[in-house]
């Protein structure tokens, strides 16, 4: 079964496509705020229903997720999960990660939450798609759904008749709303999940074909450098952002490369056509800073850390702490 | 300083580049030749992400002025396959294949440096001791902690390259 890359660049493209089955979901509300953590931002309802899974008539499967793979193997893991539940070849499952035009908005990729958040929805979506396809094949072949076997993209009945995705999805656009009550494959039947399949991203990283964020190049791209303040690294104090006295733009006026300057508060950036020109401007730029409070002495590091401005955050408190301390035979404190 | 035209041999091809001789080789490889292999990590020659081979010797391209390369052959990650293609013709160098076999990457940012350093090491020491491998890679930093898989990949490469 030969598959092709689909030119669907937005959720709307998925919704308008033919020869496809989609599993959709209403965007989830933001999770309840956790003290001390940045607030979760809910998905924008104006972006419409989330597309979790697309099964194409030519056998291409697309799983969509908001988080990105930073080397955790997430792309491989999500692929395994979908391929397992769909009984599909892993090589035909494309995992779309973090694409703001297509993937569900699942907030930042942090705190090891990616599998926690999205493994089960993908499993359900894949199981739901498999169930729909099985029922559709049973209707075409006029046999009970349970009697069908599935392999190589075809449903087969005992009598030997077969029906494939091309027939089940050809010319159709099917949308299923994610059903959390969908029966999923028992763990005992897993053939792929639970095995160490090779990471799908490593070959391109090894060959140099992989494009890291740092490798993104745009036509007409310029290069920049930041001139740091003398207190670089300090983030507490009234002087932060208010210490710049003067920037002498004439000190870089003679430099080649269309050098430009950006100044906002204590942020100073230089931009030029070439990276070496931006570096030359960074070194040449004359900057005057106002006096600023010196760093605290760091001879007694523990004391300096304790004395650094900080916001205390109670992580957990259970029972009568003061009473327990008063009654304890030995009290130990740790900073 | 005006740009001289510098002839630079990279991955078997000679390029005529109008670039300042003082520009770091890393910047020229990435910005003028569009290569992704060598990466910027520190700009100080301390992390190893920028490694390339210059006449087969591992070199920190962030610290090399492009004007000093002369007619030496520069090989980046992308060009390793041509140096030692495997019999199976995957287009990869055995060291690259070894890193895939041993799944020796998490984020992959250190990978260029690790692979190039390994190629250079095995050229000098086809059967390095564990201590020699650790010493050779000691100035390649990996923040993800893939060190054990990387060490295994080096030994796997030794196997793949054994006559």
Notes on the structure:
The complex is a heterodimer of chains A (about 325) and B (about 160). Chain A has about 325 residues and is of the alpha+beta class. Chain A has helices at about 10-15, 75-85, 115-140, 165-170, 200-205, 275-285, 300-305, 320-325; strands spanning about 20-25, 50-55, 60-65, 95, 150, 155, 160-165, 175, 225, 245-250, 260-265, 265-270, 285-290. In chain A, a hairpin with a 4-residue loop joins strand 2 (about 50-55) and strand 3 (about 60-65). In chain A, helix 2 runs parallel beside helix 3 (about 115-140). Chain B has about 160 residues and is an alpha+beta fold. Chain B contains 6 helices and 5 strands; from the N terminus they run E-E-H-E-E-E-H-H-H-H-H. Chain B has helices at about 25-30, 80-85, 95-100, 110-125, 130-135, 145-160; strands at about 5-10, 15-20, 50-55, 55-60, 75. In chain B, strands 2-1-5-3-4 form a 5-stranded mixed beta sheet, with helices on both faces. In chain B, strand 3 (about 50-55) and strand 4 (about 55-60) form a beta hairpin. The model of chain B has no long low-confidence stretch (mean pLDDT about 95). The interface of A and B includes residues 73, 203, 207, 208 and 212 of A.
Based on the model shown, name its key terms.
heterodimer; A: 335 residues; alpha+beta; five-stranded mixed sheet; three-stranded antiparallel sheet; 8 helices; 13 strands; 24% helix; extended; B: 163 residues; 5 strands; 34% helix; 15% strand; globular
Assembly form of the protein: heterodimer
Structural class by helix and strand composition of chain A: alpha+beta
Distance between the termini of chain B: 50 Å
> Cα distance, first to last residue of chain A?
63 Å
Largest sheet of chain B: 5 strands, mixed
Radius of gyration of chain A: 28 Å
Low-confidence spans of chain A: pLDDT under 50, at least 5 residues? none
Number of strands of chain B: 5
Mean pLDDT rating of chain B? 94
Order of helices and strands of chain A: HEEEHEHEEEHEHEEEEHEHH
Strand order of the largest sheet of chain A: 4-3-2-1-8
How many whole angstroms does the radius of gyration of chain B measure? 16 Å
Shape of chain B: globular
% residues in beta strands of chain A? 15-25%
Question: What pattern of helices and strands is seen along the backbone of chain B?
Answer: EEHEEEHHHHH
Largest sheet of chain A: 5 strands, mixed
Structural class of chain B: alpha+beta
Order of strands across the main sheet of chain B: 2-1-5-3-4
Report the mean per-residue pLDDT of chain A as an integer. Answer: 92
């Amino acid at each position: 079964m030969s598959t092709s890359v689909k030119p669907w660049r937005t959720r709307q493209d998925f919704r308008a496509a033919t020869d496809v089955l989609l599993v959709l979901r209403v965007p989830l509300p933001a999770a309840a705020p956790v003290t001390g953590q940045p607030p979760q931002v809910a998905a924008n309802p104006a972006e419409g229903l989330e597309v979790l899974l697309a099964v194409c008539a030519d056998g291409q499967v697309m799983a969509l997720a908001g988080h990105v793979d930073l080397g955790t193997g997430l792309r491989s893991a999500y692929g395994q999960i979908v391929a397992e539940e769909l009984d599909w070849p892993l090589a035909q499952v494309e995992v779309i990660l973090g694409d703001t035009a297509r993937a569900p908005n699942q907030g930042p990729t942090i705190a090891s939450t990616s599998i926690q958040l999205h493994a089960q929805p993908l499993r359900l979506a894949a199981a739901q798609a498999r169930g729909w396809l099985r029922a559709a094949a049973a209707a075409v072949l006029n046999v009970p759904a349970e009697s069908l076997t599935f392999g190589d993209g075809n449903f087969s009945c005992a009598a030997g008749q077969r029906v494939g995705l091309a027939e089940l999805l050809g010319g159709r656009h099917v949308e299923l709303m994610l059903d959390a009550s969908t029966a999923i494959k028992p763990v005992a039947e897993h053939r792929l999940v639970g095995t160490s399949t090779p990471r799908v991203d490593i070959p391109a990283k090894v060959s140099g074909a992989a494009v890291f964020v740092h490798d993104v190049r745009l036509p007409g791209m310029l290069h920049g450098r930041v001139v740091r303040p003398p207190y670089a690294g300090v983030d507490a104090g009234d002087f932060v952002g208010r210490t710049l006295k003067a920037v002498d733009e004439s000190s870089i006026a003679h430099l080649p490369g269309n050098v430009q300057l950006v100044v906002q508060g204590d942020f100073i950036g230089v931009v030029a056509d070439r990276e070496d020109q931006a570096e030359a401007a960074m070194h040449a730029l004359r900057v005057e800073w106002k006096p600023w409070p010196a760093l605290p002495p760091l001879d007694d590091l523990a004391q300096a850390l304790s004395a650094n401005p900080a916001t205390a955050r109670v992580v957990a408190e259970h029972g009568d702490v003061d009473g327990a301390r008063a009654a304890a035979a030995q009290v130990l404190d740790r900073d | 300083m005006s740009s001289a035209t510098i002839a630079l041999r990279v991955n078997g091809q000679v390029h005529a580049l109008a670039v300042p001789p003082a520009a770091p080789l890393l910047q020229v490889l990435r910005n003028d030749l569009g290569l992704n292999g060598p990466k910027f990590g520190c700009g100080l020659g301390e992390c190893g992400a920028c490694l390339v081979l210059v006449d087969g010797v591992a070199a920190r391209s962030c610290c090399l002025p492009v004007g000093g390369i002369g007619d030496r052959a520069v090989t980046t990650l992308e060009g390793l396959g041509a140096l030692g293609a495997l019999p199976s013709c995957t287009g990869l160098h055995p060291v690259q294949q070894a890193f895939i076999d041993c799944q020796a990457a998490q984020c992959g940012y250190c990978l260029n440096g690790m692979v190039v350093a390994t190629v250079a090491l095995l050229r000098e020491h086809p059967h390095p001791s564990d201590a020699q491998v650790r010493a050779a890679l000691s100035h390649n930093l990996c923040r993800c902690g893939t060190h054990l898989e990387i060490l295994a990949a080096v030994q796997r490469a030794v196997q793949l390259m054994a006559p």
